[in-house]
Amino acid sequence: MPGRDRFSFAYGAALGFACDLLLGDPRRGHPVAAFGRAAQSVERRLWRDHRGYGTLHTLVCAGGAVAGAGLLARAARRHRAAEIALTAAATWSVLGGTSLGREARAIGGALAAGDVEVARERLPHLCGRDPQALDAQAIARAVVESVAENTSDAVVGALVWGALGGVPGLVGFRAVNTLDAMVGHKSPRLRRFGWASARLDDVVGWPGARLTAALTVLAGPDPRGALRVARRDASRHPSPNAGPVEAAFAGALGVRLGGTLAYAGRVEHRPVLGEENRPVRTADIERAVRLSRRVSLLALGAAVSARTVGSLFRNAGRNR
């Protein structure tokens, strides 16, 4: 039925975003957790200390997720209500903005109460840093950096790919991002096997990271500071996608990010982003969460608008 896709994605994405906003991640039967278990099973069968086998693992897992989502989307097109419901379910499943905010605020609450040990216990729920190596100020900085990076990874990037590819785009982005979290880190066992997942995550995360940085400039309390630090410092970060986002957040919030980090016994010395700004304080965690929420809402609007306009142009082309 021509034109029906025009608003189906908009309704479904908005409904799925609202579900994440009100309910957070599904508590049972989370599709991302199910995908993770399936990917682990494939990894056990395919693992070799070889890039080729890692590439095959990525293709099987991410390609299978996209293919399955594509079949469901094709079947749902016959009924508008089913199409909207599938888009809403996929959007809710792949977004993680509310859970991100909850974890960040829980750590911020512990720090505000002076309970650094509780903050250390909760930090691994948010990022992979070694919490025992961090004092209260370093924990607060880690939280703000994680909120910034995950605004792109857990919200904006998924919405961008939803706008580009509908339900398969939503699912494919989350599948690649999950694989990177599972095998894309530089441990001796996964340095070669996880190479393909890490590189593919860099590719699919590129547009979402740039949109996140741009929206941070628009939505932040200091647009000029955000633009200045993002333009100057983004390329100094070792990650091509975390760099623009963290630099924009540093400038928008007027804080310093980056510096020395510890990951499971491995120490990294990263460039400082926003070196002219003050150190992160505990209160900046709440400011970062609120900025993340504003950026996420703007990203939803941008994704819905882009998908709707694209549908209008496609339908106009068919009717000529």
UniProtKB/TrEMBL annotation:
Family matches, as HAMAP family: CobD_CbiB
Membrane-topology annotation of the record: Multi-pass membrane protein
Family, similarity comment: Belongs to the CobD/CbiB family.
Gene: cobD
Protein name in the entry: Cobalamin biosynthesis protein CobD
Pathway in which the depicted protein is active: Cofactor biosynthesis; adenosylcobalamin biosynthesis
Alphabetical keyword list: Cell membrane, Cobalamin biosynthesis, Membrane, Transmembrane, Transmembrane helix
PROSITE patterns referenced in this protein's UniProt entry, alphabetically: PROKAR_LIPOPROTEIN
Subcellular location(s) per record: Cell membrane
Family matches, as InterPro entries: Cobalamin_biosynth_CobD/CbiB (IPR004485)
Function summary: Converts cobyric acid to cobinamide by the addition of aminopropanol on the F carboxylic group.
PANTHER family: COBALAMIN BIOSYNTHESIS PROTEIN CBIB
